[in-house]
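Appendix B: complex inputs.
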Amino acid sequence: MKLIVAVIRPEQLGHVLESLFHADVRGLTISRVQGHGGEIEQVETYRGTTVMMALAEKVRLEIAVSESFVQPTVQAILSAARTGEVGDGKVLVLPIDHIYRIRTGEADQDAVTPVTTQAAARH
Amino acid sequence: MQDESAAVQTADLAWMLVASALVLLMTPALACFYAGMVRSKNALNTMMMSVVALGPVALVWALAGYSLAFAPGNAFIGAADFLALRSVDLAPHHGMPHLLFMAFQGTFAVITTALISGALVERLRFPVYLVFISLWLLAVYAPVAHWIWGGGFLAGDGALDFAGGTVIHVNAAAAALVAALVVGPRRDYGRQAMLPHSVPLTLMGTGLLWFGWFGFNAGSALGANASAALAFVNTLLAPAAALTSWIIIDLARSGRATAIGAATAIVVGLVVITPAAGYVGPLAAMTMGASGVIPSYIALILRARTRLDDSLDVVAAHGLGGATGAVLTGVFADPAWSGGPAGLLAGHPDQLRAQLVGLAVVIAYSSAATFLILRALALVVPLRDAARMEGIGMDVSQHGEEAYTTGDGAILITPGDRPARPAAAASPALSGGAS
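Resulting structure:
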Protein backbone atom coordinates (compact mmCIF):
# COMPACT_ATOMS: atom_id res chain seq x y z
CA MET A 1 0.00 0.00 0.00
CA LYS A 2 1.23 3.44 -0.86
CA LEU A 3 0.04 6.98 -0.32
CA ILE A 4 0.48 8.99 -3.48
CA VAL A 5 0.67 12.73 -2.87
CA ALA A 6 0.73 14.92 -5.94
CA VAL A 7 1.00 18.71 -6.09
CA ILE A 8 -0.13 20.00 -9.47
CA ARG A 9 -1.19 23.16 -11.27
CA PRO A 10 -4.85 23.96 -10.59
CA GLU A 11 -5.55 24.42 -14.29
CA GLN A 12 -4.39 20.83 -14.90
CA LEU A 13 -6.73 19.36 -12.30
CA GLY A 14 -9.47 18.59 -14.80
CA HIS A 15 -7.08 16.67 -17.03
CA VAL A 16 -5.62 14.76 -14.08
CA LEU A 17 -9.01 13.74 -12.74
CA GLU A 18 -10.03 12.56 -16.18
CA SER A 19 -6.81 10.62 -16.54
CA LEU A 20 -7.19 9.01 -13.11
CA PHE A 21 -10.76 8.08 -13.94
CA HIS A 22 -9.58 6.29 -17.07
CA ALA A 23 -6.96 4.47 -14.98
CA ASP A 24 -9.79 3.24 -12.72
CA VAL A 25 -8.49 5.16 -9.73
CA ARG A 26 -11.57 6.13 -7.74
CA GLY A 27 -10.85 7.21 -4.19
CA LEU A 28 -8.99 10.47 -3.78
CA THR A 29 -8.90 13.68 -1.81
CA ILE A 30 -7.89 17.08 -3.12
CA SER A 31 -7.04 20.30 -1.37
CA ARG A 32 -6.26 23.77 -2.60
CA VAL A 33 -2.81 24.73 -1.45
CA GLN A 34 -0.19 27.33 -2.17
CA GLY A 35 3.40 26.56 -2.86
CA HIS A 36 6.56 27.42 -4.67
CA GLY A 37 8.25 25.12 -7.12
CA GLY A 38 10.93 27.32 -8.61
CA GLU A 39 8.67 28.87 -11.22
CA ILE A 40 8.90 32.52 -12.16
CA GLU A 41 6.75 34.57 -9.84
CA GLN A 42 3.71 36.45 -11.08
CA VAL A 43 4.00 40.18 -10.57
CA GLU A 44 0.74 41.87 -9.63
CA THR A 45 -0.05 45.52 -9.07
CA TYR A 46 -2.81 46.96 -6.92
CA ARG A 47 -2.81 50.74 -7.23
CA GLY A 48 0.69 51.78 -6.19
CA THR A 49 1.53 48.47 -4.61
CA THR A 50 3.48 46.04 -6.72
CA VAL A 51 3.94 42.57 -5.35
CA MET A 52 5.61 39.39 -6.44
CA MET A 53 3.50 36.35 -5.74
CA ALA A 54 6.09 34.00 -4.25
CA LEU A 55 3.45 31.36 -3.63
CA ALA A 56 1.46 29.99 -6.53
CA GLU A 57 -1.92 28.32 -6.34
CA LYS A 58 -1.58 24.54 -6.45
CA VAL A 59 -3.79 21.55 -5.93
CA ARG A 60 -2.69 18.63 -3.74
CA LEU A 61 -4.09 15.19 -4.42
CA GLU A 62 -3.87 12.41 -1.89
CA ILE A 63 -4.57 8.90 -3.10
CA ALA A 64 -4.12 5.71 -1.09
CA VAL A 65 -3.68 2.73 -3.38
CA SER A 66 -2.76 -0.93 -3.33
CA GLU A 67 0.61 -1.96 -4.84
CA SER A 68 -0.80 -2.85 -8.25
CA PHE A 69 -2.28 0.62 -8.61
CA VAL A 70 0.87 2.59 -7.78
CA GLN A 71 2.38 2.77 -11.25
CA PRO A 72 -0.89 3.33 -13.16
CA THR A 73 -1.75 6.16 -10.77
CA VAL A 74 1.65 7.80 -11.01
CA GLN A 75 1.67 7.53 -14.80
CA ALA A 76 -1.83 8.96 -15.05
CA ILE A 77 -0.80 11.99 -13.02
CA LEU A 78 2.52 12.46 -14.83
CA SER A 79 0.96 12.41 -18.27
CA ALA A 80 -1.99 14.66 -17.43
CA ALA A 81 -0.30 17.23 -15.20
CA ARG A 82 2.69 17.96 -17.42
CA THR A 83 2.90 21.24 -19.35
CA GLY A 84 6.69 21.24 -19.66
CA GLU A 85 7.10 24.54 -17.84
CA VAL A 86 8.77 24.92 -14.45
CA GLY A 87 6.10 24.62 -11.78
CA ASP A 88 4.28 21.53 -12.99
CA GLY A 89 4.57 20.01 -9.53
CA LYS A 90 5.66 16.77 -7.88
CA VAL A 91 4.38 13.28 -7.27
CA LEU A 92 5.45 11.65 -4.00
CA VAL A 93 4.97 7.97 -3.21
CA LEU A 94 4.97 7.20 0.51
CA PRO A 95 4.66 3.96 2.43
CA ILE A 96 1.56 3.41 4.55
CA ASP A 97 1.49 1.48 7.83
CA HIS A 98 -2.22 0.76 7.94
CA ILE A 99 -5.42 1.79 6.23
CA TYR A 100 -8.90 1.43 7.73
CA ARG A 101 -12.18 1.98 5.93
CA ILE A 102 -14.41 3.79 8.39
CA ARG A 103 -17.73 2.50 7.06
CA THR A 104 -16.89 -1.20 7.44
CA GLY A 105 -13.82 -1.36 9.63
CA GLU A 106 -11.98 -3.23 6.86
CA ALA A 107 -8.23 -2.93 7.13
CA ASP A 108 -5.27 -2.50 4.78
CA GLN A 109 -5.63 -4.14 1.34
CA ASP A 110 -9.39 -4.60 1.77
CA ALA A 111 -9.81 -0.98 2.71
CA VAL A 112 -8.40 0.30 -0.62
CA THR A 113 -10.12 -2.29 -2.77
CA PRO A 114 -12.85 -0.42 -4.62
CA VAL A 115 -16.38 -1.13 -3.51
CA THR A 116 -17.75 -3.86 -5.73
CA THR A 117 -20.48 -3.06 -8.18
CA GLN A 118 -22.73 -5.32 -6.17
CA ALA A 119 -22.16 -3.29 -3.06
CA ALA A 120 -22.53 -0.05 -4.96
CA ALA A 121 -25.83 -1.21 -6.40
CA ARG A 122 -27.30 -1.44 -2.91
CA HIS A 123 -27.16 2.35 -2.56
CA MET B 1 -40.70 63.67 -29.34
CA GLN B 2 -41.24 67.31 -28.60
CA ASP B 3 -40.92 70.30 -30.83
CA GLU B 4 -37.25 71.16 -31.24
CA SER B 5 -37.81 74.85 -30.63
CA ALA B 6 -39.81 74.43 -27.42
CA ALA B 7 -38.08 75.49 -24.24
CA VAL B 8 -36.89 72.66 -22.02
CA GLN B 9 -39.39 71.82 -19.28
CA THR B 10 -37.87 71.47 -15.84
CA ALA B 11 -39.60 68.14 -15.22
CA ASP B 12 -38.31 66.69 -18.49
CA LEU B 13 -34.81 67.89 -17.75
CA ALA B 14 -34.86 66.40 -14.25
CA TRP B 15 -36.12 63.04 -15.47
CA MET B 16 -33.64 62.81 -18.33
CA LEU B 17 -30.73 63.62 -16.00
CA VAL B 18 -31.82 60.79 -13.72
CA ALA B 19 -32.58 58.42 -16.59
CA SER B 20 -29.11 58.93 -18.07
CA ALA B 21 -27.52 58.07 -14.74
CA LEU B 22 -29.77 55.00 -14.44
CA VAL B 23 -28.70 53.70 -17.86
CA LEU B 24 -25.06 54.33 -16.98
CA LEU B 25 -25.45 52.08 -13.94
CA MET B 26 -26.46 49.22 -16.22
CA THR B 27 -22.91 48.79 -17.50
CA PRO B 28 -21.30 48.02 -14.12
CA ALA B 29 -24.46 46.01 -13.37
CA LEU B 30 -23.81 43.96 -16.48
CA ALA B 31 -20.24 43.51 -15.23
CA CYS B 32 -21.62 41.85 -12.07
CA PHE B 33 -24.20 39.83 -14.02
CA TYR B 34 -21.53 38.45 -16.36
CA ALA B 35 -18.73 38.04 -13.81
CA GLY B 36 -20.81 35.82 -11.55
CA MET B 37 -21.18 33.36 -14.39
CA VAL B 38 -17.50 32.87 -15.16
CA ARG B 39 -14.80 31.03 -13.24
CA SER B 40 -13.13 32.93 -10.42
CA LYS B 41 -9.81 33.15 -12.27
CA ASN B 42 -11.54 35.25 -14.95
CA ALA B 43 -13.84 37.36 -12.77
CA LEU B 44 -11.93 40.63 -13.02
CA ASN B 45 -11.32 40.32 -16.74
CA THR B 46 -15.00 39.70 -17.33
CA MET B 47 -15.98 42.71 -15.22
CA MET B 48 -13.39 44.86 -16.94
CA MET B 49 -14.78 43.96 -20.35
CA SER B 50 -18.00 45.68 -19.33
CA VAL B 51 -16.60 48.45 -17.15
CA VAL B 52 -13.98 49.53 -19.65
CA ALA B 53 -16.64 50.40 -22.21
CA LEU B 54 -17.33 53.42 -19.99
CA GLY B 55 -13.95 54.77 -21.10
CA PRO B 56 -13.01 54.51 -24.76
CA VAL B 57 -16.51 53.79 -26.03
CA ALA B 58 -18.02 56.81 -24.28
CA LEU B 59 -15.15 58.92 -25.58
CA VAL B 60 -15.42 57.69 -29.15
CA TRP B 61 -19.17 58.23 -28.92
CA ALA B 62 -18.80 61.87 -27.90
CA LEU B 63 -16.11 62.62 -30.46
CA ALA B 64 -17.50 60.84 -33.51
CA GLY B 65 -20.11 58.14 -32.89
CA TYR B 66 -22.85 60.54 -31.89
CA SER B 67 -22.49 62.51 -35.09
CA LEU B 68 -22.54 59.39 -37.28
CA ALA B 69 -25.67 58.21 -35.50
CA PHE B 70 -27.71 61.33 -34.88
CA ALA B 71 -26.51 64.17 -37.08
CA PRO B 72 -28.83 64.73 -40.02
CA GLY B 73 -27.26 62.92 -42.93
CA ASN B 74 -28.45 60.51 -45.57
CA ALA B 75 -30.55 57.39 -45.06
CA PHE B 76 -27.52 55.31 -44.05
CA ILE B 77 -25.22 57.43 -41.93
CA GLY B 78 -25.25 60.71 -40.05
CA ALA B 79 -23.21 63.63 -41.31
CA ALA B 80 -20.18 65.17 -39.65
CA ASP B 81 -22.13 68.12 -38.18
CA PHE B 82 -21.72 66.98 -34.59
CA LEU B 83 -18.11 65.71 -34.77
CA ALA B 84 -16.21 66.48 -31.57
CA LEU B 85 -19.48 67.87 -30.17
CA ARG B 86 -19.50 70.78 -32.58
CA SER B 87 -22.89 72.54 -32.25
CA VAL B 88 -23.90 70.07 -29.54
CA ASP B 89 -24.79 72.73 -27.01
CA LEU B 90 -27.37 73.45 -24.33
CA ALA B 91 -30.08 74.51 -26.76
CA PRO B 92 -33.26 72.36 -26.70
CA HIS B 93 -33.08 69.16 -28.72
CA HIS B 94 -35.74 66.46 -28.34
CA GLY B 95 -37.03 68.36 -25.34
CA MET B 96 -33.75 68.52 -23.44
CA PRO B 97 -30.42 70.29 -23.76
CA HIS B 98 -28.71 68.83 -26.82
CA LEU B 99 -25.63 67.91 -24.80
CA LEU B 100 -27.75 65.82 -22.43
CA PHE B 101 -29.42 64.03 -25.36
CA MET B 102 -25.92 63.11 -26.59
CA ALA B 103 -24.96 61.79 -23.14
CA PHE B 104 -28.23 59.84 -22.72
CA GLN B 105 -27.66 58.13 -26.07
CA GLY B 106 -24.01 57.61 -25.13
CA THR B 107 -24.99 55.46 -22.16
CA PHE B 108 -26.84 53.16 -24.60
CA ALA B 109 -23.82 52.93 -26.89
CA VAL B 110 -21.62 51.97 -23.94
CA ILE B 111 -23.76 49.07 -22.76
CA THR B 112 -24.29 47.76 -26.28
CA THR B 113 -20.58 47.17 -26.75
CA ALA B 114 -20.32 45.68 -23.26
CA LEU B 115 -23.08 43.19 -24.08
CA ILE B 116 -20.95 41.63 -26.82
CA SER B 117 -18.28 40.67 -24.29
CA GLY B 118 -20.50 37.90 -22.92
CA ALA B 119 -19.62 35.78 -25.95
CA LEU B 120 -15.89 36.42 -25.63
CA VAL B 121 -15.13 36.03 -21.94
CA GLU B 122 -12.24 33.96 -20.59
CA ARG B 123 -10.18 34.14 -23.79
CA LEU B 124 -10.01 37.38 -25.82
CA ARG B 125 -6.87 39.47 -25.20
CA PHE B 126 -7.86 42.67 -23.47
CA PRO B 127 -6.05 45.19 -25.71
CA VAL B 128 -7.67 43.57 -28.75
CA TYR B 129 -11.05 43.88 -27.09
CA LEU B 130 -10.51 47.61 -26.50
CA VAL B 131 -9.74 48.23 -30.15
CA PHE B 132 -12.58 45.97 -31.26
CA ILE B 133 -15.34 47.68 -29.29
CA SER B 134 -14.11 51.14 -30.28
CA LEU B 135 -14.13 50.23 -33.98
CA TRP B 136 -17.43 48.38 -33.61
CA LEU B 137 -19.07 51.43 -32.09
CA LEU B 138 -18.20 53.53 -35.13
CA ALA B 139 -18.66 50.92 -37.83
CA VAL B 140 -21.72 49.08 -36.53
CA TYR B 141 -23.52 50.75 -33.66
CA ALA B 142 -23.52 54.30 -35.04
CA PRO B 143 -24.97 53.43 -38.48
CA VAL B 144 -27.54 51.02 -37.04
CA ALA B 145 -28.67 53.62 -34.50
CA HIS B 146 -28.91 56.10 -37.37
CA TRP B 147 -31.08 53.77 -39.45
CA ILE B 148 -33.71 53.39 -36.75
CA TRP B 149 -33.36 56.38 -34.40
CA GLY B 150 -31.46 58.96 -36.43
CA GLY B 151 -33.94 59.27 -39.28
CA GLY B 152 -32.38 56.58 -41.47
CA PHE B 153 -34.02 54.20 -43.91
CA LEU B 154 -35.42 51.72 -41.37
CA ALA B 155 -37.19 54.55 -39.55
CA GLY B 156 -38.54 55.64 -42.93
CA ASP B 157 -39.76 52.09 -43.48
CA GLY B 158 -41.67 52.28 -40.20
CA ALA B 159 -39.59 49.96 -38.00
CA LEU B 160 -40.42 50.51 -34.33
CA ASP B 161 -37.81 50.22 -31.62
CA PHE B 162 -38.76 52.16 -28.52
CA ALA B 163 -35.60 51.69 -26.46
CA GLY B 164 -33.33 49.40 -28.44
CA GLY B 165 -34.53 45.84 -28.91
CA THR B 166 -33.06 45.77 -32.41
CA VAL B 167 -30.52 48.60 -32.25
CA ILE B 168 -28.99 47.34 -29.02
CA HIS B 169 -29.84 43.77 -28.15
CA VAL B 170 -30.19 42.10 -31.54
CA ASN B 171 -27.32 44.16 -32.89
CA ALA B 172 -25.00 43.17 -30.01
CA ALA B 173 -26.11 39.53 -30.17
CA ALA B 174 -25.42 39.23 -33.91
CA ALA B 175 -21.96 40.66 -33.27
CA ALA B 176 -21.53 38.28 -30.32
CA LEU B 177 -22.40 35.26 -32.42
CA VAL B 178 -19.91 36.12 -35.14
CA ALA B 179 -17.24 37.15 -32.64
CA ALA B 180 -17.57 33.84 -30.77
CA LEU B 181 -17.09 32.01 -34.05
CA VAL B 182 -14.10 34.09 -35.19
CA VAL B 183 -12.33 34.07 -31.82
CA GLY B 184 -13.15 30.39 -31.27
CA PRO B 185 -14.20 28.50 -28.18
CA ARG B 186 -12.30 28.54 -24.89
CA ARG B 187 -9.62 25.86 -25.04
CA ASP B 188 -11.26 23.70 -22.39
CA TYR B 189 -14.79 24.34 -23.65
CA GLY B 190 -16.78 21.14 -23.90
CA ARG B 191 -14.09 19.14 -22.09
CA GLN B 192 -14.44 20.63 -18.66
CA ALA B 193 -17.44 21.85 -16.73
CA MET B 194 -17.27 25.62 -16.40
CA LEU B 195 -19.50 26.62 -13.56
CA PRO B 196 -20.55 30.09 -12.42
CA HIS B 197 -18.24 31.12 -9.60
CA SER B 198 -20.68 33.48 -7.88
CA VAL B 199 -24.39 33.16 -8.54
CA PRO B 200 -25.11 35.83 -5.88
CA LEU B 201 -23.02 38.32 -7.89
CA THR B 202 -25.08 37.50 -10.96
CA LEU B 203 -28.32 38.02 -9.04
CA MET B 204 -27.10 41.34 -7.70
CA GLY B 205 -26.18 42.38 -11.23
CA THR B 206 -29.64 41.37 -12.36
CA GLY B 207 -31.26 43.58 -9.76
CA LEU B 208 -29.11 46.54 -10.72
CA LEU B 209 -29.80 45.93 -14.40
CA TRP B 210 -33.55 45.99 -13.80
CA PHE B 211 -33.22 49.19 -11.77
CA GLY B 212 -31.19 50.84 -14.51
CA TRP B 213 -33.57 49.54 -17.17
CA PHE B 214 -36.29 51.88 -15.88
CA GLY B 215 -34.07 54.70 -17.13
CA PHE B 216 -33.36 52.81 -20.32
CA ASN B 217 -37.01 52.23 -21.26
CA ALA B 218 -38.87 55.04 -19.52
CA GLY B 219 -36.07 57.46 -20.38
CA SER B 220 -36.56 56.60 -24.04
CA ALA B 221 -39.81 58.57 -23.86
CA LEU B 222 -37.39 61.52 -23.77
CA GLY B 223 -39.41 63.38 -21.17
CA ALA B 224 -41.38 63.19 -17.93
CA ASN B 225 -44.64 62.30 -19.57
CA ALA B 226 -47.36 59.65 -19.91
CA SER B 227 -45.29 57.67 -22.39
CA ALA B 228 -42.53 57.38 -19.80
CA ALA B 229 -45.06 56.14 -17.25
CA LEU B 230 -46.32 53.52 -19.70
CA ALA B 231 -42.79 52.37 -20.51
CA PHE B 232 -41.93 52.33 -16.80
CA VAL B 233 -44.86 50.10 -15.86
CA ASN B 234 -44.25 47.78 -18.81
CA THR B 235 -40.64 47.48 -17.64
CA LEU B 236 -42.00 46.29 -14.31
CA LEU B 237 -44.64 43.89 -15.65
CA ALA B 238 -42.91 42.20 -18.57
CA PRO B 239 -39.94 40.85 -16.55
CA ALA B 240 -42.37 39.89 -13.77
CA ALA B 241 -44.30 37.76 -16.25
CA ALA B 242 -41.07 36.45 -17.77
CA LEU B 243 -39.77 35.41 -14.37
CA THR B 244 -43.02 33.68 -13.48
CA SER B 245 -43.16 31.90 -16.81
CA TRP B 246 -39.53 30.76 -16.53
CA ILE B 247 -39.99 29.43 -13.00
CA ILE B 248 -43.03 27.44 -14.12
CA ILE B 249 -41.10 25.93 -17.03
CA ASP B 250 -38.16 25.16 -14.72
CA LEU B 251 -40.40 23.50 -12.16
CA ALA B 252 -42.25 21.51 -14.80
CA ARG B 253 -39.03 20.31 -16.42
CA SER B 254 -36.85 19.49 -13.45
CA GLY B 255 -38.82 20.18 -10.30
CA ARG B 256 -36.37 22.91 -9.34
CA ALA B 257 -36.45 26.64 -9.96
CA THR B 258 -32.86 27.78 -10.48
CA ALA B 259 -31.35 31.11 -9.45
CA ILE B 260 -29.34 31.52 -12.65
CA GLY B 261 -32.57 30.76 -14.48
CA ALA B 262 -34.37 33.51 -12.57
CA ALA B 263 -31.61 35.99 -13.39
CA THR B 264 -31.76 35.01 -17.05
CA ALA B 265 -35.56 35.24 -17.10
CA ILE B 266 -35.55 38.78 -15.74
CA VAL B 267 -32.99 39.92 -18.31
CA VAL B 268 -34.86 38.23 -21.17
CA GLY B 269 -38.11 39.81 -20.00
CA LEU B 270 -36.43 43.21 -19.96
CA VAL B 271 -34.98 42.67 -23.42
CA VAL B 272 -38.32 41.51 -24.82
CA ILE B 273 -40.18 44.61 -23.62
CA THR B 274 -37.44 47.05 -24.64
CA PRO B 275 -38.57 47.63 -28.25
CA ALA B 276 -42.23 47.78 -27.16
CA ALA B 277 -42.04 49.63 -23.85
CA GLY B 278 -43.86 52.81 -24.89
CA TYR B 279 -45.98 51.25 -27.64
CA VAL B 280 -47.98 48.51 -25.92
CA GLY B 281 -50.44 48.29 -23.05
CA PRO B 282 -49.66 46.57 -19.73
CA LEU B 283 -51.56 43.36 -20.52
CA ALA B 284 -49.68 43.04 -23.79
CA ALA B 285 -46.43 43.64 -21.86
CA MET B 286 -47.22 40.75 -19.54
CA THR B 287 -48.12 38.54 -22.49
CA MET B 288 -44.86 39.49 -24.20
CA GLY B 289 -42.82 38.77 -21.09
CA ALA B 290 -44.46 35.43 -20.38
CA SER B 291 -44.26 34.13 -23.94
CA GLY B 292 -41.05 35.89 -24.94
CA VAL B 293 -38.85 33.75 -22.68
CA ILE B 294 -39.77 30.51 -24.44
CA PRO B 295 -37.48 30.86 -27.49
CA SER B 296 -34.62 31.88 -25.20
CA TYR B 297 -35.24 28.97 -22.84
CA ILE B 298 -35.09 26.47 -25.70
CA ALA B 299 -32.05 28.14 -27.27
CA LEU B 300 -30.12 28.06 -23.98
CA ILE B 301 -30.55 24.31 -23.74
CA LEU B 302 -29.68 23.69 -27.38
CA ARG B 303 -26.66 26.00 -27.44
CA ALA B 304 -24.92 24.14 -24.63
CA ARG B 305 -24.93 21.02 -26.82
CA THR B 306 -23.05 22.73 -29.65
CA ARG B 307 -19.45 23.81 -30.21
CA LEU B 308 -20.58 27.42 -30.30
CA ASP B 309 -18.95 28.95 -27.24
CA ASP B 310 -21.28 31.91 -26.81
CA SER B 311 -20.08 31.66 -23.24
CA LEU B 312 -22.76 33.68 -21.43
CA ASP B 313 -25.52 33.14 -23.99
CA VAL B 314 -25.73 36.61 -25.47
CA VAL B 315 -27.44 35.15 -28.54
CA ALA B 316 -30.04 33.17 -26.63
CA ALA B 317 -30.85 35.91 -24.11
CA HIS B 318 -30.35 39.16 -26.00
CA GLY B 319 -30.58 38.03 -29.61
CA LEU B 320 -33.66 35.88 -29.36
CA GLY B 321 -35.19 38.06 -26.66
CA GLY B 322 -34.65 41.19 -28.75
CA ALA B 323 -35.92 39.56 -31.93
CA THR B 324 -38.99 38.17 -30.19
CA GLY B 325 -39.65 41.57 -28.67
CA ALA B 326 -39.27 43.31 -32.02
CA VAL B 327 -41.71 40.93 -33.69
CA LEU B 328 -44.21 41.13 -30.83
CA THR B 329 -43.99 44.94 -30.94
CA GLY B 330 -45.32 44.63 -34.47
CA VAL B 331 -48.15 42.51 -33.12
CA PHE B 332 -49.13 44.36 -29.95
CA ALA B 333 -48.37 48.04 -30.70
CA ASP B 334 -51.52 49.76 -29.51
CA PRO B 335 -52.47 53.35 -30.40
CA ALA B 336 -55.08 53.30 -27.64
CA TRP B 337 -52.21 53.29 -25.14
CA SER B 338 -49.45 55.14 -26.96
CA GLY B 339 -51.46 57.43 -29.21
CA GLY B 340 -48.89 56.34 -31.78
CA PRO B 341 -48.23 53.42 -34.10
CA ALA B 342 -50.52 50.40 -34.49
CA GLY B 343 -49.51 46.76 -34.78
CA LEU B 344 -51.12 43.66 -36.21
CA LEU B 345 -53.80 43.37 -33.52
CA ALA B 346 -54.74 47.02 -33.99
CA GLY B 347 -55.33 46.35 -37.68
CA HIS B 348 -51.93 47.25 -39.13
CA PRO B 349 -50.29 44.02 -40.34
CA ASP B 350 -47.67 45.94 -42.30
CA GLN B 351 -46.03 46.82 -38.97
CA LEU B 352 -45.02 43.18 -38.61
CA ARG B 353 -43.31 43.33 -42.00
CA ALA B 354 -41.43 46.50 -41.04
CA GLN B 355 -40.24 44.82 -37.82
CA LEU B 356 -38.97 41.76 -39.69
CA VAL B 357 -37.19 43.88 -42.29
CA GLY B 358 -35.51 45.85 -39.52
CA LEU B 359 -34.34 42.67 -37.81
CA ALA B 360 -33.03 41.09 -41.00
CA VAL B 361 -31.11 44.19 -42.06
CA VAL B 362 -29.52 44.72 -38.65
CA ILE B 363 -28.57 41.05 -38.21
CA ALA B 364 -27.04 40.88 -41.67
CA TYR B 365 -25.09 44.11 -41.36
CA SER B 366 -23.90 43.58 -37.80
CA SER B 367 -22.72 40.02 -38.52
CA ALA B 368 -20.86 40.98 -41.68
CA ALA B 369 -19.22 44.10 -40.25
CA THR B 370 -18.20 42.32 -37.02
CA PHE B 371 -16.64 39.53 -39.07
CA LEU B 372 -14.60 42.02 -41.11
CA ILE B 373 -13.43 44.00 -38.07
CA LEU B 374 -12.26 40.92 -36.17
CA ARG B 375 -10.64 39.32 -39.21
CA ALA B 376 -8.79 42.55 -39.94
CA LEU B 377 -7.64 42.77 -36.31
CA ALA B 378 -6.49 39.15 -36.43
CA LEU B 379 -4.19 40.01 -39.33
CA VAL B 380 -2.41 42.61 -37.22
CA VAL B 381 -2.41 41.14 -33.69
CA PRO B 382 -3.13 37.78 -32.09
CA LEU B 383 -6.67 37.65 -30.69
CA ARG B 384 -5.83 35.03 -28.06
CA ASP B 385 -3.07 34.37 -25.58
CA ALA B 386 -1.09 31.15 -25.25
CA ALA B 387 -2.99 28.12 -23.96
CA ARG B 388 -1.02 28.16 -20.71
CA MET B 389 -2.00 31.76 -19.98
CA GLU B 390 -5.63 30.98 -20.72
CA GLY B 391 -5.30 28.12 -18.23
CA ILE B 392 -3.88 30.38 -15.54
CA GLY B 393 -6.75 32.78 -16.13
CA MET B 394 -7.30 36.15 -17.73
CA ASP B 395 -7.15 38.08 -14.44
CA VAL B 396 -3.48 37.36 -13.94
CA SER B 397 -2.53 37.18 -17.62
CA GLN B 398 -4.32 40.33 -18.82
CA HIS B 399 -4.50 42.51 -15.73
CA GLY B 400 -1.84 41.30 -13.29
CA GLU B 401 -4.45 41.13 -10.56
CA GLU B 402 -6.60 38.51 -8.92
CA ALA B 403 -10.23 38.90 -7.93
CA TYR B 404 -9.92 36.83 -4.78
CA THR B 405 -6.48 36.69 -3.24
CA THR B 406 -5.48 36.03 0.33
CA GLY B 407 -2.25 37.90 -0.22
CA ASP B 408 -0.30 34.92 1.11
CA GLY B 409 3.20 34.85 -0.29
CA ALA B 410 2.96 38.33 -1.77
CA ILE B 411 6.35 39.96 -1.51
CA LEU B 412 6.31 43.74 -1.64
CA ILE B 413 8.38 45.22 -4.42
CA THR B 414 9.56 48.73 -3.66
CA PRO B 415 11.16 51.01 -6.24
CA GLY B 416 14.82 50.10 -6.46
CA ASP B 417 14.17 46.45 -5.71
CA ARG B 418 15.19 43.86 -8.22
CA PRO B 419 16.92 46.06 -10.77
CA ALA B 420 17.24 42.98 -12.96
CA ARG B 421 13.52 42.96 -13.66
CA PRO B 422 12.40 46.57 -13.93
CA ALA B 423 10.27 45.83 -16.99
CA ALA B 424 8.32 43.19 -15.14
CA ALA B 425 7.45 45.52 -12.32
CA ALA B 426 6.49 48.32 -14.66
CA SER B 427 4.40 46.16 -16.91
CA PRO B 428 2.84 43.43 -14.81
CA ALA B 429 0.31 42.40 -17.45
CA LEU B 430 3.06 41.14 -19.68
CA SER B 431 5.37 39.67 -17.08
CA GLY B 432 3.55 36.39 -16.61
CA GLY B 433 3.90 35.39 -20.21
CA ALA B 434 7.02 37.17 -21.26
CA SER B 435 9.41 36.51 -18.43
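Strands of chain A lie at 2-8, 29-35, 42-46, 49-53, 56-65, 89-95.
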